[in-house]
Design a protein that fits this description.
Length: 122
């Protein structure tokens, strides 16, 4: 069992690894888009940052950000990746469940908690 500093350091390491891997996945997904779509998505991101609308609700509400996330998820599910890449994609999914579980624990969302537990089970 991990306690105290070791737990927070391990969680931070998982989060940093998640960010890097998801960034690579995003980068590969963006290569498949045409320039016009890329410009629209960049503009939408810059608008959100310029207006200080960086909360999760604002990001989920933006149709271009949602389109980008859908493209990334579709690439992760349907892409022809090597076995090592598939391992890292599974890792990304598990870290997503950890993040959702932590959110459910902090806000007291029982339904989200049950969903996370069910999703983490093999």
């Amino acid at each position: 069992m991990i306690s105290g500093h070791a737990y927070s350091k391990a969680l931070r390491a998982h989060l940093l690894t998640f960010v890097v891997l998801y960034g690579k996945l995003l980068e590969n997904s963006l290569q498949e888009l045409n320039e016009e779509t890329k410009c629209i998505i960049r503009y939408a991101i810059h608008e959100l940052i310029a207006t200080n609308k960086t909360s999760i609700e604002d990001l989920k509400g933006n149709i271009h950000i949602k389109q980008l996330l859908d493209i990334v998820e579709e690439a992760a599910e349907n892409g022809n990746f090597s076995r090592t890449a598939q391992l890292w994609l599974q890792y990304i999914e598990q870290v997503k469940f950890i993040l959702l579980y932590i959110q459910a624990d902090r806000v007291g969302d029982w339904e989200l908690h049950l969903y996370c537990i069910k999703s983490m089970m093999p």
